[in-house]
Predict the structure of Hsp20 family protein.
Amino acid sequence: MKLIKDKKFLKNVAHYIDLTNTLGGGTVQPQVKMVKHKKEAILQVVLPGVSAEQFQVILDKNQLTVMALHQSEQHPAMQMPLFHQQFLLPPYVDFNHLQVVHEGKKLRVHIPYLPQGPRLLEIEQR
């Protein structure tokens, strides 16, 4: 068995383990909840001990990726994933008006719907 002699690395790993450890000795499970309203849906992620700077939210076409990364203070290039989840958004979402808010321990993604109902289409004459 090979021992790790890099004390800085061990300190960072210990900090990461401490970050994800709960009082009962298990790991922290993020609370992910999707609440649907009449005009929008709200995706809420609660991850204790994670700051707004650690979260990243990426929209690629209709796929929304929410992740949280822990970055080592001594080794800024070293990042460890704390949370990563992808959501497939329906086609009736107004992708141009998504809003991400971090408040307290919660990250909320407001996902507005496109206006529904019949739409009169213009007829082109050529």
User: Anything to note?
Assistant: The domain at 29-112 is CATH 2.60.40.790 (Immunoglobulin-like). The chain has a mean pLDDT of 83.
